Each structure stands twice: as C-alpha cells, then as structure tokens.
Amino acid sequence: MASPSPVTQGMPRKAALAAWIGSALEYYDFFIYGTAAALVFNKVFFPASSPATGTLLALATFGVGYLARPVGAFVLGHVGDRLGRKKVLVFTLLLMGATTFLVGCLPTYASIGVLAPILLVVLRLLQGLSAAGEQAGANSMSMEHAPPHRRGYYTSFTLSGTQAGQILATAVFLPIAALPQEQLLTWGWRIPFWCSAIVVVVGFVIRRKIDETPVFEQNKSDVAKLPVAVLFRTQWKDVLRVVAAATIASVSTIFTVYALSYAVNTVGLERGPILWVGVLANVAALLAIPFLAGLSDRIGRKPVFIAGCLACAVLIFPYLWSISNGSYPLIFTLGILLFGVAYSGVNGVWPSFYGEMFSAKVRLSGMAIGTQIGFAIAGFAPSVVAAIGSGKDDWLGVAVFTAAVCLLSAGAALTARETHDVPTEELGAAHVRRAKVPASATRGG
Q: Which residues have C-beta within 8 Å of that of residue 333, sequence separation ≥ 6?
C-alpha cells in the first residue's frame, strides 16, 4: 500500500489529539449536568415534590437530553456526510458550550415556578442535539486519518477524551459539593456551568485548525444527496446492530448518575468520597482505553468488546452491593474495576468497531444514528432503575437490569463481522474480505 502523501503525513496524531481535546471539553459540559442532576436539581428545580419523586424527575431531565440525540444524529449525520466532518465538530462544540453556560444562568423554581424546569428541559434537549454529532464526527475524523493497522488505537482517543471530560466535570464538583448546603443550592452549583465559557473558546480554536479527512476530500464530488436514504437502503442491518450494541452505555449512565444518587441520597454516604470514585475510575480508564484499543488492532474488535460487556455484567453486582453496605474500600476497588477497566474494553473498541461497519459515504450518519438511538435508551437507564427501586435494599434489581443490557450488547457484537484486518477502502463494502493489512502498511502517524 502506498505511503501517505506529504499533505497527510503526521495527521493521524493531530486528528487523534484534536478529537481527544474536543471530546474532553464537550463531555465536561455534558457530565456536569449529570452530576448536578444527581446532587442538586431535585432541590433547585423540583422542590415541591417528595424527595424520591424530585430525584426521579431530576434524573429524567438527564435522560431527556438523550431524546434529542436521534434527531441530532439524522441532521448532523447528513451534514457530516454531505459537507464534511470538520463542520460538524465545530458546530457541536459551540452549541454545547452555549447551552451549558445558559443552564448556569437559569432562575430556580423558587423564582419563576414551573417555567424553571421547562427551560431546563429545553436547554437539555439542545445539549443532546449537540452530543449527537460529537462522537460520530470525532470518530470519523480520527479513523479516516489513521493508518489501517492502527485504527482502533487512534480512534480510541475520542473516548479517552470523554473520560478526561468526566474527570474534569467530577473534579470541578468536588469543592462545590463540599460547600454548605445553602451556598451549594444558591450559587455554588452554577460555577461549573459558567466555566463552559472558557471551554468553548479553547475548543473552538483547536477544532478550527483540523484538516478535513482525505477520505471525504477524495469523495467530495460523489457524495450522496441523501446519505441517510443510502444508509438505510444498503446497511440497515448494521444500524440495528449498532443500536443494540450501543445500549451498553447504560453502564456509564448508571455508574455516573444513578449510583451517585443512590449512594448519596438513599444510602446516605458522603458526596466527596463517592465523587472521588468516579475520578479514579476515569483515571484508570485513561490508561486502559488506548491499551485495550491497541489490543483490538492485534486480536480483533469482537473479543475485546464482548469481554468488556461480560465483565461489566458480572461486576455491577458486587459494586452496587458494596454501596448498599457503605464499604468505601470495596466501593473504590470495584468502581475502578467496573468502570475504569471492564467498561474500557467497550469504550476503547466501539469507535473503530462501529465505524468500520460503514462505508465512507454514510459512515458519520451510520455511526451517529446507530449510537445515538442506543445512547438514548441508555440515557433513561438511571430513571428506569430508580423506578425499579428507590430503597437501600433494591440494588439487586438494578444490577439484574444492567447485566441484561450488557448481555444484549454482547449478543449484538457477536453477530457483527470482524473488521480489524480489513483495508480501509474496503470497509462497509458488501464484499468485505478479511484481507490482512500488512505490517508494512501506511504508518502516517
């Protein structure tokens, strides 16, 4: 295979870095909302409800953002496949930054009544619209710049950035959560949202400097007028496969939102230590994700992805049990193993695994629609499990539900083709062959 042109030399690293930084900034915005929903919004926006109902409503506003994701996936997938990956990445960052800043400016229920939670839901919908195109755009960008034998490794930087964003979001809330209750509920919770003004400026500067991918540039004169129509005519089975596999994101939403709310609001554990569990688990994930993604370049996407799903299905039981018993050593150990290691087997692989299912002409649409419908389902997982049980001893039903979702995702992955050794230009083609990518293949990074 020919070596890369001088124009693309070194671009895999640049694209991966841009995807990492952009995703970190984007998901900082997204996850501070989840933390606030678990700790604050039940008291600020739903004070008229009972404590259990207020918590359920607050978690539901987190899930509402996922409703907009499928809509955003259709719109932004179309834009990305028609006009380019770069335009999507810049737009999503600006929209996420603006809406997050405005959440921090919202008046409370005590100030304007029911209009406050209505405005909160509107802004959350816009956040979901933005997130719909973020990961699919960043994954397509980094994957299409990557050497064919290292697509897993380079695309994993998008998810490493997501973990970094979660670390930053949780770390910002650590001192905020330590404030006296009155200060936390009046002005303290707003500070992380206002910080998005800095986030959006930095992210915009970075993403404006990204080059469009060679794959898109080469096919610019032959783009489909309606990529979504082509997608559903030729690769609808792959879309359904990704939808089912992407529900594994329920592990993330249950870990970051439900478990936090369960530990603090139901079991009565201290906010600070539970927030630190998320920080340390994400630090572990920063190391595990590129390692496991690199492993998938050698042994295949399916073994690593499926192993991650099965490990999550097992570990969710002792993790929730340890929270119910208030055992901090076990909570930290099992939290890191579950989210930092086992879930990284999924997170490190899915960007390349899903992206390799689709041809370049419909890749962004296919990834965006498939993942965002699956993520929309996962977004309501905290609300579903909160409805399953709101008591201290109801953790077993939550664990069973989570494990069932993990098995569904593993089953969907089992039906997929193995694509780690398929040349980039053949990805998504009906005649996909398992042609090995030679070790001397392009190493443009």
A: none
Q: Which helix (H) or strand (E) holds 242?
A: helix 236-246
List all residues 6 or more positions away from 51 whose beta carbon is below 8 Å from its beta carbon.
42, 265
Q: Assign 3-state DSSP to the chain and report helix, strand, coil percentages, each to 5.
A: 80, 0, 20
| Residue 27 pLDDT > 90 | no
CB 99, CB 72: distance < 8 Å? no
> Cα angle at 387 between 386 and 388, to 5 degrees?
90
Residues 6+ apart with CB under 8 A from 114: none
User: Could you tell me the pTM of the whole model?
Assistant: 0.79
325 Cα distance to chain centroid: 29
Look at domain 227-415 and name its CATH class.
mainly alpha
Cβ-contact 59, 101 below 8 angstroms: no
**12-211 under CATH 1.10.3210.10, yes or no:** no
pLDDT higher than threshold 70 for residue 43 = yes
Averaged pLDDT for residues 17-30: 78
Please state the separation of Cα 121 from the chain's center in Å. 20
Report H helices in 146-177: 151-177
DSSP state of 418: P
The answer to whether the CB of 146 falls within 8 A of the CB of 156 is no
State the DSSP code for 342. Answer: I
With contact defined as beta carbons under 8 Å apart, do 343 and 384 qualify?
A: no
Sequence letter at residue 293: A
Q: Which of 313, 320, 369 is nearest to 346 (CA)?
A: 313
Percent of the residues in the chain that have a pLDDT greater than 90, as a whole number: 31
C-beta separation of 256 from 278 below 8 A: yes
pLDDT score recorded for residue 168: 84
Q: What is the largest distance, in Å, between two alpha-carbon atoms of the chain?
A: 66
Common-topology check for domains 12-211 and 227-415:
yes
Spans of all domains in the chain: 12-211, 227-415
Band (288; pLDDT cuts 50, 70, 90): very high
User: With b meaning 16 or more CB within 10 Å and e meaning fewer, what string describes 224-263?
Assistant: beebbebbeebbeebbebbbbbbbbbbbbbbbbbbbbbbb
